[in-house]
Each structure stands twice: as C-alpha cells, then as structure tokens.
Amino acid sequence: MHELFLAGEVDVTELEPTTVRPVVAKSWQRSLAKGVDPDFDRARPAAVASGIAKLRDSHPLAPALPVIRRLLVDDAVDAGVVVAVTSADGTLLWVEGDPKARRKAEQMNFVPGADWSERSAGTNAPGTALALDRELQIRGSEHFSRVVQPWSCTATPLHDPDTGALLGAIDLTGGPQAASSQTLALVRATALAVESHLALLRLTGCAPEPATRKPHLVVLGSDRPRWVTTDVYGHLRATMLTGRHADILVLLSRHPEGLSADHLAVLLDDKDLDVVTVRAEMSRLRKVIGAEYLASRPYRLLVPITTDIGEVFDALDLGDVEAALNAYHGPLLPQSVSPSIARLRMQVSASMRGAVLAECSRGDMAPLRRWLEMPEGRDDREGWEALRNSASIDPVGRAQAGGHLAGLDFELG
Hints:
Number of domains: 3
Order of helices and strands: HHHHEEHHHEEEHEEEHHHEEEHHHHHH
Protein name: GAF sensor protein
Organism: Mycolicibacterium cosmeticum
Pfam families: GAF
Largest sheet: 5 strands, antiparallel
InterPro entries: GAF (IPR003018), GAF-like_dom_sf (IPR029016)
Shape: globular
Distance between the termini: 49 Å
Strand content: 5-15%
C-alpha cells in the first residue's frame, strides 16, 4: 500500500483501517504534501546541530536525563534498541542504548543534532508524536521513508508539569518488539516519571523555571476576545480586548512580516479609517497588552504568539478534524466589520465545513454530528441531508435528521 500510495494509485484514506491505520495514512499525506523524499538517505541536520552540546545543557529535559537512563537506557544497552530524547521541534538531543543498534541507526542519521520532525523525515514515531502531541507507535513499513522501514518505534511527548508546554519526546527504536504494547506501557510510564521528577525538582528549587507558554489570542466564538499570558508562577492571566484591538492582533498574527499604518488601515476598514486613528489604536493596544509585544515601522509582533484560529488551521493541515473541531468554538470575531477579518472568518468556517463533509464521505459521521450541533451547522441543509442518508445512522437518528430538514425547508419556503 505504501508503494501504491507513492505511485498515486491508491487513496489511503479510503482504505479499511485494518489495511493502513488512519493516523498513518494522514501522516503519509502530510509527509508527501511537505515534500519529504521517501528515498532520503538521512534526516536533515537541524540548524542547531553544531551547537548540540549547548542546547543539551540548557534544555529543560536535561535534569530528567538520569530518570530516563535508569528506566529505559540501562536495559536497552544489550536489548538491540536505542532510546532517543528530542526537543519540541524534533531535534534529537540524546541517542543512547545498544551500541550495535546505535551504529545501525547512525546510517540513517538517527544521531544527536538531526531533525527527525515529521516535516523533515516523514512518518516516524517521535516526529509524528510531536506533530499530533500524542503517544504513538509506528511499525516497520508504516514509516514514510523507505530507509526507516526496517525499524519500529514507540514515542510519547513530554510536557512541562506546570504550564503544559510541549518540551520534547521520548522514543524507543528497534526491531518489531519496539512497537509492542509492553513497550508503550514502559515509555508511557517513563514519561510520567520524567514529568513528576521535573515537578519535584521545581518544588525544591533545583530545576529551571517553567517553560512559559507563548501569549495566546482567543478570537473564535461569541465570547469577548482576550489576550492570555502566563506569569512567572505559571498562572494564566486573561486580558479582555476591544473588537478593534482583537482585529489588529489577528491581522498582525497573520502578517509576521509587519504592516504599515496605511496597510493596516485598509485591512481594518477600506473606506473610512485614517492613519491617525490606527496610530491612536496601536498606542492604546500597547497599554493593554504591554509595549514589549508590539513594534512599529512597520507594526508587528515582537514575540511569537499562538491563536485559537491558528490552532484550527494547524489541525486541518495535519488532517486532524477532531482536533480542529475541539479548537473551533464558533465564527471568528462575529461582530467585526473589518473586510479582512470577514474574509478570514469565511475562510476558516468554509475550511471546517469542507473537512467535516470530507470525513463524512469517508464514512466517519462523528465530525458531522458535532458540526451540526454548532450554530453554523444548524442551518446546513447539505450536512443534515448527508446525516439522514448515511447508512450508519440508526432509525431514530435518521428520523430526527429528516425532521430537521423538514423544518429548514418549511422556513425557507
């Protein structure tokens, strides 16, 4: 199936889950879309490869390395497996274990400093586990790149115990036994031990400060938009925003290169807004969220931020419709009259609806049911019709869908 997929002769998302697991099929599609070469000889070196020692010393997982060695590495030395610890971006920090297995792994550049993110190396346990932020096992031929297919692996993400920020992942790579249920339990238990160890060190003042979350912008749904930051104690602080300030922050988050006052004025209102008003709003916004976050000439964000709309787009890019629905709490800034915000509002809504209907066409009705429960889905005639006509729906559900359709048709004449 892997060869047929690469040849463009089969759509793996339409296969039975027993043929290719859905999580693997979606990862293959992402790998192909990102331009990963299935015949790559070695994973690309990360930009930090030359400074790997410095990165290790400063990484928040460094204090937990003794725990990982005690629970995993010590027993891996003569077991034909290697244990890897990655940073959050997929860079391998430590690769230890069976010497013979390590030498074999080096032939595909599974070494400290190499980039094993999914976007670089294709489907693999540590890279895909980081992309999805979930524990994962990849077996042999499920790997996207052929050079990795002799291996199997199990990985689980690691998080900051205070803030929940993603720190990296633990991976165990070897033969078929490296993707067994017992291995998953062992790696999962090690991850829990690592996070508990970091929490204990922090309580005793022996660990680095918590990894702070990026500022987060909440702009989806009917609730008032807000700017969420983390203080030095790891506590979340939400600052409510006016509609205009939320518009500005959304536009700046979508234009990291920055915007001039003239350009921002046109994006906010293509008719009546002048540059003086924009400058006044930016001055007020600095006082609301802090001057350390905003720069001028051009106006731009000084630090990376996350947004709930960005989370939706990221989940859709990964093919994870369930995660996208979890992040999508309603239309983008529904009260905004900015033409650029209106366009983006339509884009995210249409993308969500299209992804839900695509899942429906593959036989998964759960996303459609969730969509139809949302305000935007209640009048979605095509969606209700698809639910009514689904072969997997029970008679009562079909009757309810039919009743909803009748009500829509009556209202629409």
